[in-house]
Amino acid sequence: MIRTCKPSDFETIYAIINDAAQAYKGFIPADRWHEPYMVRDELTHEMEEDVVFWGLEQDGALVGVMGIQDRGDVVLIRHAYVATRARRQGIGTRLLQHLESTVERPVLVGTWAAARWAIAFYQKNGYQLVSEVEKDRLLQRYWRIPERQVATSVVLANKRWMDTPPVPTPSQIRVLRRL
Question: Which residues contact 106 (CB under 8 A, 6 or more apart)?
Fold first, then answer.
């Protein structure tokens, strides 16, 4: 069963994130890795920044979580993790498809560039990598992450993003007005 997580799920969300994040150890830059990967204060902060966590339950226990964050004209998938013991059961795909079904706007996902398995997961689910220039622009516009993380991350976009014409930048608008 997929459901919105409740405040009482906080410790379970925290445990799933830090269990599943062990897969990133040794792949993401050493200066971005710490133990635990996400501290309680950071998880609290993410929830205060309106990241809404959804979870998939098996036998009454959460085994996977995925956050969604409304950023106006787009929605971000944030903190998608499946407990190590429950991997390779389609839990991430089910969560992603459920969250996508709740929104009509384009969906963006950021992940570490070295996390090839995470990139492959999103590509398998119809997401495409955006260009390096677009990645930098999107991470700076929609995420609140350090520059070092911007430099070592990628962004993937769903079909709605790819089918949406890009919004011109102010300098592009000025050029168009002159024509």
Answer: 73, 74, 75, 157, 158, 160, 161, 164
**How far, rounded to the nearest angstrom, does the alpha carbon of residue 116 sit from its chain's CA centroid?**
15
Closest CA to 50 of 98, 100, 4: 4
What CA–CA distance (Å, rounded) separates 78 from 54? Answer: 11
Domain 2-178: which topology? Aminopeptidase (3.40.630)
Q: How many CB atoms lie within 10 A of CB 112?
A: 17
3-state secondary structure of 105: coil
Who's near 30: CB < 8 A, 6+ residues apart? none
Structure tokens at 129: 């990598």
pLDDT in tens, 10-51: 999 999 999 999 999 988 888 888 899 999 999 999 999 999
The full set of domain ranges for the chain reads 2-178
pTM of the model: 0.88
